[in-house]
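User: Predict the full complex structure for these chains.
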Amino acid sequence: MKRRTKQREIILATLSGANGPLTAEELWQQARAQSNNLGKATVYRNLRLLVQEEDVQEVHLPNESTRFEAKFTGHRHYFYCEKCKNISFIQATCPVAALDGVTLPSGYKIRSHSLMFYGLCVECD
Amino acid sequence: MKRRTKQREIILATLSGANGPLTAEELWQQARAQSNNLGKATVYRNLRLLVQEEDVQEVHLPNESTRFEAKFTGHRHYFYCEKCKNISFIQATCPVAALDGVTLPSGYKIRSHSLMFYGLCVECD
DNA sequence: TTCTTAATGATAATCTGTTATCATTAAGCA
DNA sequence: TGCTTAATGATAACAGATTATCATTAAGAA
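Assistant: Here is the predicted structure of the four-chain assembly.
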């Protein structure tokens, strides 16, 4: 039977507390603060499991390896700070949402989109 | 001294003729049609060179390895067809451009953005 | 045309991210 | 508490993309 482990709790808690999507590596580094001999394989194993169970979702961003974030049902975008290199969630009315479901003049039918901003975050500006 | 080779011409011509950004692998496959024993290392070498000289630019898209396209000075977006998996350029007024240079309420200063559409292309719809 | 050497093609090596292996640990039912 | 076995931690193995190596080829000045 499936077991509820301390490690999985920590992994999910770390993701839930993050203010942006994390790579497996970043997650491992942060989660180790709670469980100092946490194995990297355990992080990958649990991420796969959590994604299957839909408690966690993958995020694919330009020029970045796969990131993970705790389940979020809304629509939001990401902000990459060119100085500190951190990626955080950003709250802003989506200026593109109106296009979803639309067929462009060229004949392409849009089902969804991915929008990412680059610039300077609050701390770095 | 730097030499103008047949291989580099073919690589650049292939990129210029493409209707979307290509991965090094795709570029290699296509360019080999013109030069059937073109080496993959040559493709990588020339891509690096062409990027340095700014005749070619890299494009980083979500969940995709680095792609390359011939220099283009405007602003455009990409369309990923969920059926045929091809990525093509798309012409559309940018609904996000107005945000560039803007500082959001949260304090994030936007310098640029990356917008990508997912859906069905003309051939697949 | 000849000659120098930049560039090439083939392939081995490297790097990064992820998965498999396996002995050991611990979740949680009896 | 004891027992079964799912899950873990350490590490080797793997996969894909990119770079280095090196003998060979060919660009282009003389």
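Residues 6-70 of chain B form a domain with the Arc Repressor Mutant, subunit A fold (CATH 1.10.10.10).
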